[in-house]
Amino acid sequence: MGKRMTPRERVIAALEHREPDRVPIDCGATMCSSLTGGASRNLKKHLHIEEAEDKVTCVLNDSVALSQKVLNLFEIDFRTVRMKGPDSTAAGRVAGASVEKTENGIYDEFGTLWKKTSFDYVPVGFSLEHATVSDLGTFPWPDPENPGRIKGVREEAKRLYDETAYAVVSDFICGGPFEQAQRIRGFERFMLDLAVDQQFAHTLLGHLTDNAIGFWDVMLSHVGEYVDVVCQGDDLGMQTGLQISPEMYRKFIKPCHRRLFSFIHKRTDAKLWLHTCGSVYDIIPDLIEVGVDALNPVQTSAANMELWRLKKDFGMDITFWGGGIDIQRFPTMSIEEVKREVTAALEIMAPGGGYVFAASHNILPDTSGESIYTAFMTAIENGEYGHS
Prior knowledge:
By secondary structure, this protein is an alpha/beta fold. 39% of the residues lie in helices and 12% in strands. It has one domain: TIM Barrel, CATH 3.20.20.210. It is built from 13 helices and 13 strands. The strands form 3 sheets. It has a 7-stranded parallel sheet with strand order 3-8-9-10-11-12-13. A 4-stranded antiparallel sheet has the order 4-5-6-7, with no helix packed on it. A hairpin with a 2-residue loop joins strand 4 (99-102) and strand 5. Helix 2 (37-47) packs across helix 13 (369-382) and helix 6 (177-185) crosses helix 7. The chain is globular.
């Protein structure tokens, strides 16, 4: 076995499709590759870790920042810097945070109302549901330059980059144009826009892309030189396929992605990581073309997203970040099944680099602590290159 790499060296090697000393491991680097609060409590109980509640990194999906003891135990290769909420003294839709809790639910900065389900939230009220094209020019878009957003962010990123050997991740700071259009217009209404009101759809997507670029302009001006991975999301898939046809993606969404991702690449040398749930097999070549370096969450239970297929067809051109354990089945799997699934994932995905081990999304609250522990310890034990 060769020289032991630092976490940052390991991650960079994998993202550049070189074989590091072992497969990098992620749990908690992003708000979509972590544990839910309930799963974290289960794990800490199993490990007899008595600490205060974990900090929530996204209240809408109940993701948490993991205990330092867990990060160390699981040999997590990443540490994260996150944009803050807006300053309450500045003008804006929401005071003091990126979400505002009310008796009706949670309003985000776009005015979308989210209602709680069992542990996370779903959007149910849409601020632009009845808007016209002329309304878009006067809508109070979230202000990227609100001074509260970047308080201490540069110092935090610099400290992580200069004083630790971890790969530094800049987590999500805004929704992608497609998913944000659905959240602000309404899911059915925006789908109708794409079909019968294309002027509105193009105009809305343009505004949302401009707003996202504004957020990344602010964030990367402060952390661009200190981060190794930049994370953007835009959910495009379902269990059975894309939400829209590949042709419609290329007409409406791909130009937005190209513009947004090109801007990010111009502002930082960091790799671009895209979170998009479901079956996106049919547009992976398009995502590669517009600058996606790593694809997450690798939802292996969705159509055509089997690990062997992804590795064979695209493994040389894009890094797959996730898919190490299927969270949909994880709560009901036996310990032996967990070991087999994790080991099989590594055997398929590790060769040639281009893989980061993580679950297929945030691990759900009904997953046992023993199962979570087993999955990540199995990844450590079987992720070495050249292990026997």
